[in-house]
Amino acid sequence: MKKVKKCSLIVLLVILAVVLCALLVFLGLYFTRLETIGTMEQLTDYADGYNLYRMDVKYDYSLDDIIGYDIQDDQTMIDAILKEALPLLPVKIKAPNFGCTAFTLTDTDGGVHMGRNYDFRKNTSAMLVYCAPKGGYRSLAFAALDNVSANVPDENIKKKLASLTAPFICLDGINEKGVSIAVLTLDSEPVRQNTGKPVISTTLAIRLVLDRAATTEEAVELLRSYDMFASSGRDYHFYITDASGDGRVIEYDINGEPRELIDTPSEVVTNFFIRHVDQVLPNQKNGIYGHGRERYDAVLQVLETEKGNYTTDTVWNAMKSAAQDPNPDSITSNTQWSVSYNNTDLSADIVIRRHWSDVTHCELETKVTAPLK
Predict the structure, then answer these.
(1) Model pTM?
(2) Which domain holds residue 5?
(3) 17 shares its domain with 60
(4) Residues 11 and 108 placed together within one structural domain of the fold
């Protein structure tokens, strides 16, 4: 009887030791993730429930590990992100889609700006994400929370945890070197390069540029070192600007095989291949070449009208000229946010869902966010 009790006690102690070890491992993994959740803050309060939030990423992440998970499709991309952001937890997210308009200008004081409208048919809240990766550049960026089913991210623990993936699903942002980037959708078949290089997906490319590029040229060369996988069954291009005003559209040649990366200097970009602007007419689809010429023309008209007198007002005038109301027949309608990045003083001013009089100012250096009067 004593032997049985002794054996039972040993088994119980072993079980307790295993549970304790598992708990310590879990706490080790999630302590800084819980710290990150603790920084979450709501910055606006709109009746429709779609708002701007902020989060300061406290946990360490390895972009190389995510890329090293051998991304082949949407599911492996999502699995790779979840392994890094939420190890050991069963959380589901979906791959996002992106519309939009972006442009660059230099104001009369020499300040470089990138203006960007994020357009998407389905309504979303936005998360302002501050990152300071080890060995990388600090950045602020914006993620669409509907893509992780967390439009009210502080509503419950499930949504708080889902929001921890935000660094890897950002759609635009700026880093401490003054490099800004935005992604915009196209109408062509999704690019899937297969040249033997490591594979990177759409939003991970944004994180790569924000973490590691000090100039537009460096960003282009970084992207050239990867095979691009366009996620969510859509094709995309990127717009990148740096503190010198070097604005380029990064596209994957629609008429080539393999689809090689081509960078084209441009002031403005919307949802068509900038290299084939002569093939694109306004207010219509233009086959594989894309759409959105009318928004491109509208921004160019503002820039031409105010040429020689550019100010921050010019940025907002241009974004307003290209903003879109909801249209159930167009995936790239319905401007969800408009953001004016200042590549010189490293800040961003953002408006959610066309509330033009309600601007939130975001500083990269100090991480201060405040209403802009």
Answers:
(1) 0.91
(2) 1-38
(3) no
(4) no
